[in-house]
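> call design_seq(struct)
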């Protein structure tokens, strides 16, 4: 009897541990958190995977595995294209630092570019670890990385660091047809992190290049649009200051369905891009930053083409005319990053960041990765930051006649819908929380009850941002309207008063 009890306890312990592990790796809830940050959690991303151990090269399958093993929720992988257009994992533009290319292909020189080789030749290369020692790891394609995550039952959010449109398109085509071991489509857990200059200020450039307006079949009679599936983090470096209107570019993307967070190379107090940092905080959007830790010894970093090293002060940016300019770079300090409300840190030292700093500062409440987000929205501080042109309208008033409002049934308290901006004269957005995936019906009616606009939008389970309608394109005139939202179960309805200026 005692042995049976011990065996039962062991089995129960293993089951509970496995269940807890699965909960902590719920990719949907990690994405939900990144879209709606909290003060007691800083998300962590393992830069190039977790490669600080011997025999574990950066951007390798082993680095992906080790990042998951040590409990990191997101990993960043760098993408380059082979000569035959296949996306592969490589931070550098060249192969001299991280592979044995010079040994296998001596005629190509000491440091040949990645783009000189086919994907087949690249996969034959062995990778070097942080000491420069060759390992049994080979340079993987992006598709091989996706397959590894599925075949080894890994649940993790992947952030792709891509530097051009061609590589972005190639990776997106891979993502659209991949899934993890639980059947979750890769577009639910892969984020594209792109320099804002790649697609510029107009979101339509990105949307058209990736065909995000295309619909696709989900099964069970349901369809969706890729604009709801794609996940995007624009990156603003200080040297972009005079290349585009950075603040306006951020504003153009912030309410897109595919927007997740914004990365800013914010280096010093009142530095370049302070305006984006301040606006993102008002918008309650997640701010991302790279924890700049030297990787070439001392205070030096390797150049992306392995042609030498540099110090952070060597790449300070000065705008034409001499102002603004970088005079410091404090991104190597965890305290500095957290002080300006960076809520998502990419670092080469994820374990040390968590154990040596974030936990002690009360910034590692990973319970947010397991929360019931519908309950969170009704019980916590899940709000949209108020601004002069952005605020939420939570209650329906008696502006409309009884004959209009009496035809609708209020939603259950576990569901929540925020409308912004309201009043509005442009694009109408919502943040919605609900517990069942499927199609919701959005109906805009005037004070007499006459229909003005209708659309059907596919909703995921949980918390999400949605673009409902471009009011100008739909021909909606100034006035007061009622927005009726019928949720996927066809019974719960939400009423919101909309003011169009």
């Amino acid at each position: 009897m005692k042995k049976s009890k011990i065996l039962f306890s062991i089995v129960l312990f293993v089951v509970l541990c496995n269940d807890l592990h699965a909960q902590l790796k719920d990719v949907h809830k990690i994405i939900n958190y990144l879209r709606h940050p909290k003060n007691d959690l800083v998300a962590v991303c393992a830069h190039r995977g977790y490669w600080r151990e011997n025999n574990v090269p950066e951007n390798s399958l082993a680095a992906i595995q080790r990042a998951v093993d040590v409990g990191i929720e997101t990993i960043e992988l760098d993408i380059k294209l082979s000569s035959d257009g296949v996306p592969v994992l490589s931070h550098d533009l060249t192969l001299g630092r991280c592979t044995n290319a010079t040994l296998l292909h001596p005629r190509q020189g000491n440091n040949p570019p990645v783009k000189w080789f086919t994907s087949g030749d690249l996969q034959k290369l062995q990778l070097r670890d942080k000491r420069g020692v060759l390992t049994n790891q080979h340079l993987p394609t992006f598709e091989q990385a996706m397959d590894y995550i599925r075949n080894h039952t890994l649940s993790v959010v992947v952030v792709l660091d891509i530097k051009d449109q061609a590589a972005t398109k190639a990776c997106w085509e891979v993502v659209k047809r991949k899934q993890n071991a639980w059947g979750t489509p890769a577009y639910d857990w892969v984020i594209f992190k792109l320099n804002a200059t790649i697609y510029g200020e107009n979101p339509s450039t990105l949307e058209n290049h990736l065909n995000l307006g295309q619909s696709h079949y989900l099964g069970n009679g349901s369809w969706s649009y890729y604009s709801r599936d794609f996940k995007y983090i624009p990156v603003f470096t200080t040297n972009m200051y005079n290349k585009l209107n950075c603040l306006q570019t951020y504003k153009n993307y912030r309410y897109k369905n595919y927007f997740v967070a914004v990365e800013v190379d914010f280096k010093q107090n009142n530095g370049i891009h302070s305006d984006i940092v301040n606006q993102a905080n008002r918008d309650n959007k997640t701010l991302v930053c790279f924890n700049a830790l030297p990787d070439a010894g001392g205070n030096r970093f390797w150049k992306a083409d392995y042609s030498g090293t540099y110090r952070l002060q060597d790449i300070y940016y000065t705008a034409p005319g001499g102002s603004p300019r970088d005079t410091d770079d404090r991104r190597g300090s965890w305290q500095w990053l957290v002080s300006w409300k960076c809520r998502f840190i990419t670092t080469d030292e994820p374990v040390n960041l968590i154990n040596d700093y974030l936990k002690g500062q009360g910034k590692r409440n990973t319970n947010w990765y397991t929360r019931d987000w519908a309950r969170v929205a009704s019980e916590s501080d899940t709000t949209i930051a108020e601004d002069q042109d952005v605020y939420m309208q939570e209650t329906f008033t008696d502006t409309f006649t009884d004959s209009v409002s009496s035809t609708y049934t209020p939603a259950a308290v576990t569901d929540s819908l925020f409308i912004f901006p309201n009043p509005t004269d442009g694009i109408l957005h919502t943040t919605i929380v609900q517990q069942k995936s499927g199609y919701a019906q959005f109906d805009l009616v005037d004070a007499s009850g006459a229909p003005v606009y209708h659309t059907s939008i596919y909703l995921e389970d949980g918390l999400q941002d949605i673009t409902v309608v471009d009011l100008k394109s739909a021909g909606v005139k100034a006035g007061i309207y009622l927005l009726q939202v019928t949720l996927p179960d066809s019974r719960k309805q939400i009423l919101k008063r909309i003011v169009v200026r």
